[in-house]
Amino acid sequence: MTDPRSTPTPAPDEALLTPLRAGALLGVLVALWTFTMGFTGWYRHPNLLFLFWLVIPLQIVVLVWMLRKTAPTAGYLRQVQNGVGASVIASMIIFMASLLFTMVVFPSYFAELEALGRIQMAKQGLSPEQIEAVVKAQAPMQKPLGSAFAGALGTWITGLFTSLVAAAWYRKR
Questions:
Q1: Cα–Cα distance, 61 to 142 (Å, whole number)
Q2: DSSP character for 19?
Q3: What's the pTM value of the predicted model, to 2 decimals?
Q4: Which residue, of 17, 67, 96, 157, has the greatest Cβ tally within 10 A?
Q5: Is the pLDDT of residue 6 over 60?
């Protein structure tokens, strides 16, 4: 009879670790990009505000890299699960980073965006009543929790669609 304490513990399955690592990497990269936008003040400039959206191609690149790496050992559904799983891990980090960004580090973020939006809408010729209507319509998303959830949801959706397409692409090869 062998002593169970002498049996080496098996290494964690690489197939499980890869999506976890990719999700953590993605979450940290998105958080770093968000704080880069904040510390540089780029979010205050109408011509640079679009740079926030670079997180979408960033997510696509990370997921495609991960799915390419796992394609030889995983079928289509496992690939989709890997991509969605990595996106869920990333979304948790993104959610917390968003709350930290808007509640602690840049607490005036939403007020600054609203002021910038008002200026831009006035330049576009909107009446004060139209501007107020737009600001009122945007108000639910101009809060830390709503914004953080929108970031998480966007990460899930992007992850699902990217995984569906990339997994199909890599399974054909």
A1: 28
A2: H
A3: 0.85
A4: 67
A5: no
